[in-house]
Amino acid sequence: MMNLCCSNNLLPVRKPSTRALGQPRYFWEPGRMLNVHFMDGSPEQQQTVQRIAMEWPIYANIAFRWYQPIENSDIRITFESQGSWSYVGTIARFVRPSDPTMAFGWVGEFTPNDDRAVILHEFGHALGLEHEHRHPHNQIKWNGEPPFWYSTIPDDKWRGYISTLHDPESVMHYPINDEQANITIGQNTEISEFDKLWCAFNYSYA
Prior knowledge:
By secondary structure, the protein is α/β, with parallel strands linked by helices. The protein has a single domain, classed as 3-Layer(aba) Sandwich (Collagenase (Catalytic Domain)), CATH 3.40.390. The protein is built from four helices and five strands, in the order E-H-H-E-E-E-E-H-H. The chain has helices spanning 43-53, 56-59, 112-127, 193-202, and strands at 33-38, 63-65, 75-78, 85-86, 102-103. It starts with 32 loop residues before the first strand and ends with a helix.
């Protein structure tokens, strides 16, 4: 399901803002209240998602209204999945109302840091952020062919994105070990300073 986290659609270029990565056409309107519906999952799983996801509105002018009816929902979450994924931003509007727009395949099964990393990451996608490791100007030199889901955005498709430099601390970055490439990036479990600046620019409170 990893392909749901990325899109190749393009837009005319806008002035770059921060290191985080996203396409304006998929951003919600600042100040938008997003209705969230849990399609399944235990109360503990649902509460974990709610608690961690609520860190995003601290930095972005966006709000989540939880436990809403499915017919009024913008984000629909399932825990019955073999992986974790999310549609990017407003692409969720085009998903059938009976289908999930976000999935968590292992919340509560591993460590609290694993939960933090995946929940912040997928809700970053829901706001319009995309995979930071795909930045075409990253400093990653792979030892051989990188995995498909680490593929870099080609320069000729870069003009539709808002970003500047590669941010290895972004919660939207996948881990990289020293056997894969010239740099090592661990599991990021916090919204980085540049993620926060991206929020301030694209979901301004002003």
